[in-house]
Amino acid sequence: MGATSRRRLAAVAFLAATTLLATTACGGDGEDAGDGTVTLTVDVFGQFGYEELYKEYMAANPGVKIVERGTGGNLDEYSPKLTQWLAAGKGAGDVVAIEEGLLVEYKANPGNFVNLLDHGAAELKGNFLDWKWNAGLTADGKQLIGLGTDVGGMAMCYRKDLFAKAGLPTERDAVSALWPTWQDYIRVGEKFTAAKTGASFLDAATNTFNTIVLQTAGNSSGYHYYDTGDNLVVDTNPAVKQAWDTTMDIIDSGLSGKYGAWSEEWVSAFKQAKFATIACPAWMTGVIEGNAGPAAKGKWDIARVPGNGGNWGGSYLAVPKQSKHQDEAVKLAKYLTSAKGQIGAFKAKGPLPSSPQALDDPAVAGATNAYFSGAPVGQIFAAGAKSLKPVYMGPKNQAVRTEVENAVRTVELGQRSPDQGWTDAVTNAKKAAAK
Amino acid sequence: MSVQLDARPPVAAAPPVRPTRSYRLSRFDARWSPYLYIAPFFLLFAVFGAYPLAYTLWVSLHEWDLLGTDPTFIGAENYTRLLADVDFWHAVVNTLGIFVISTVPQLLAALWLANLLNRQLRARTGWRMAVLVPNVTSTAAVAIVFGVLFGREFGMVNWVLDLAGVDGIDWKANRVASWVAISTMVDWRWTGYNALIFLAAMQAIPRDLYESAAIDGASRARQFWSITVPLLRPTIIFAVIISTIGGLQLFTEPRLFHAGTNAIRGGPSRESQTVTMYMFENAFAPYYNFGYGSAVAWLLFALIAVVAVVNVLIIRRLGTGAGTRPGGRKGGRG
């Protein structure tokens, strides 16, 4: 009798053991071969343009292998993922990109990141625009979370073919001269609309609103939704209301194509040349090229932004504390954000450097973009970058911005009147800030 | 007794003077092995089901910033805040609206489809497999394709409407229109699946019932409503409960239907934000309020339980109502 039941018992034990093994095996992440090679994972979104730089770095550091994740992805999907990895204490790359809007939220819990000042980053201060460096520091200035990658110097991109069809000038200096102010921009838009080209003047009022509010705030108080004491000032800051009113004028004049920004519809509208202008931070040039495709090469050009300058977006590289190779990761982050690294990224995908040395470099200052009819992008974007006036962002910046932009969207779609929209924006922003 | 099967060891057998080692082993085997055999499921359930459930409850009682280090205990405050949160109730109405618009036609269509498939058809297996094809397609692919079909300006649905002389509808910024669009997606995926389940149950209904009904002069429709439907009742209840759970947890379809920025809101004025999307919005981007999000999860759990019970009550009444008619289930076996 013994043989059978013992065998059965063994089978049970085996089954239980394998189940346990199978469930625990998920926990191990088999990185790093035993040969001493270190694998560094870099998490990004959109286009950072680092491929060539990785190759160079790996050639100079034979013990390091670099893997990039998330290339071409959407920021809206990347940010929650990164936050979950940080919260779980596992899963994040060794070097992670952080967009400026999210950086403020991460700064509230700096314990998740390596203090770059402990790794000799202090000496790099001169390599960055002052405000870009400072934004990477925690409130007490004792911890540096991120090293700056790019800034979002502003311009206005436009389609020459549609401008010609509407009988407007197409040459970039003449176009820039059309709109010294946003009111002039609206007037040009009205002319464009009257010509009935079948296209709208701009893509989405939300994008234009964000451009105007960042510009207006940068030129006045230096903050928009939150003041520098982190008090919500959506309803009292004249810069916000002014930007709101200008945007309402744009909507009133029927200039917007109402394509929800970053949706498939928006992408289709690029492909089918359904709008003539789009507010264009430096990084947007890459987006336009990707969305409009090779067929539209040479049909786009870049003019000055109405109003005066402004900054939208730009990112930082940070090293999460959970990284197993912090020293190696910091070294890589320093390399990628060095003037040389920033020039390399700019040449590859167009993000505008945040390093004054890189901005002065002929490779940047003299750069032209063939896709945009050979526009001197270096001159257009880099010229304004050094005098950029940054906008301070408070703790729940992302959530508040979402509410205000959604209010713009409801007015744009005709669901709300401008007054109702403004009331919504203020109440919802307050609610979001309190959450 | 060298081959011991599943029978328990005889109690009054040989005098149990000295149980041998193998005897004790065999006793142990007979008594505990069944538990060990089913243990893997319960182990996995404990790790991936029960533990997260309890942990979510624990989290929901805290002010818990996803990235923060020291959550503070606040008792039921998240729940009281949530019950007064208009956006939450807005999401509940959306979810129930989408649930009703999708599930009712879906189950009716599945029943009808199953009835068709139950007849003598050429290439029967082919047809039966074909209705399952949409279910095999990835939800994400379906949602993206439907999102494009229901586009405001470049969408095919509006193009067809335009041909018919109807003005285009902004499917993503109109509350009821977006519910309909999302329900279409859900039905596309799940009608065939439910049809196959109904079909399997229909084939278990004895044919002689239909024969005697036919002799009594019952029409096909009468046979369907008086024999098929009452006998399918347990299956219908099963399908309704599964659809309730799935429908109230709807996430992927509405999330991917609204592409672009802040898709998690389900439209600029939260036109089709479901409860799971609201949970995600609060627990993760852009609020990162883990405690509040967990409270949403628990209320959703309660909501599903309530709706499931209500559904079962309704379906049960429907079944007995039909069953008391003459020629109903009284003659059925099983």
From TrEMBL, chain A:
PROSITE patterns tied to this protein: PROKAR_LIPOPROTEIN (PS51257)
Source domain of life: Bacteria
Pfam family, one: SBP_bac_8
Keyword vocabulary terms for this entry: Signal
Region (Disordered): 415-435
Signal peptide segment: 1-27
InterPro entries: Bact_solute-bd_prot1 (IPR050490), SBP (IPR006059)
Protein name in UniProt: Extracellular solute-binding protein
Automatic annotation (TrEMBL), chain B:
Keyword terms, alphabetized: Cell membrane, Membrane, Transmembrane, Transmembrane helix, Transport
Entry superkingdom: Bacteria
Subcellular localization: Cell membrane
Membrane topology annotation: Multi-pass membrane protein
Residue span(s) of domain ABC transmembrane type-1: 92-311
Segments traversing the membrane: 35-58, 88-117, 129-150, 231-251, 295-315
Entries under Pfam families matching the protein: BPD_transp_1 (PF00528)
Family assignment from sequence similarity: Belongs to the binding-protein-dependent transport system permease family.
The protein, known as: Sugar ABC transporter permease
Organism of origin: Micromonospora thermarum
